[in-house]
Amino acid sequence: MDIDKKIATRQSYGEELVKLGEKNKNVVVLDADLSTATKTEMFAKKFPDRFIDVGIAEANMIGIAAGLSTFGKIPYASSFAVFAVGRAYDQIRASIAYPNLNVKICGTHAGISVGEDGATHQMLEDISLMRTMPNMKVMCTSDDIQTKWAVEEISKIKGPVYLRLCRLATPVIYEENQKFEFGKGVQIGEGTDGTIIATGLCVSEAIKAQKLLEEKGVFVRVVDIHTIKPIDEELIIKCAKETKKIVTVEDHSIIGGLGSAVCEVLSEKYPTKVARVGIKDCFGRSGKAEELIKYFKIDAETIAKTVLE
């Protein structure tokens, strides 16, 4: 992991959309008056005839995306996660998920790491909302390399996909030649004292915790779950059998998110004690992203402490 090289996954999203647009003429991008922040403005400049800014009308954006998909287009509907999912939930459910249409919903600025925008904009429930929706697939990427892979990969997947992205610049974890597979997590390290299962920006915090624990003679593995639905049951069960202890970490509510998904797998397939690190059934608050990560205890030090406990 290159801690000195940091890139926001929303930036990676914007850059890769342009490359994808060059490869696939069926790709169209929609935004709801936030193209500068979501970075879809890059696509708009390159392909103005394939970009639609609907204004502050997220529900309408979803309806337009649904319609475009029925004509063979691959729409990427973009906004802040709180608007893309929260404001347009009914339209996503009825107009995209129910008819199983080929629309990609991309929510940037997810989690408490949105920072100073405060509780109203800090979407902590989107994974829960999207993964319980039939036909919907859910991804949450951890770094620049993985995000660029995911942006292209979801264009090949038929049906609706929700891609969760971050505002905060985070360390680059992977090398350019790293191979990913949809629905399969990435194991980092071979430690047998425990497993830290993380998603999104918390993967880099988990890797930092892994190093802190190593200094204390405790050796854990980190599992990066970039695909939350369908989740990698095989890898989760393997780690539970080999390490006995599981800690999940997410910039999301511990209710309905990654932690819940992991517990669902293990309760049915291989009962294991799981400690969930995440937002504890509360709203966020305004503050600098780095400060909020510590305040809400999803930082490396808290992860390491939880493993030791």
Question: Can you describe this structure?
Answer:
The chain has 309 residues and is α/β, with parallel strands linked by helices. It has two domains: 2-172, 3-Layer(aba) Sandwich (Rossmann fold); 186-308, Rossmann fold (3-Layer(aba) Sandwich), CATH 3.40.50.920. It is built from 13 helices and 14 strands. It has helices at 9-23, 35-38, 41-46, 58-69, 81-87, 89-97, 126-131, 144-153, 202-215, 233-243, 258-269, 289-295, 300-308; strands spanning 2-8, 27-31, 51-53, 74-80, 104-108, 137-140, 161-164, 169-172, 186-188, 194-198, 220-224, 227-229, 246-253, 274-279. The strands form three sheets. Strands 3-2-4-5-7-6-12 form a seven-stranded mixed beta sheet, with helices on both faces. Helix 4 runs parallel beside helix 6, helix 9 crosses helix 13 (300-308) and helix 10 crosses helix 11. The model has no long low-confidence stretch (mean pLDDT 96).
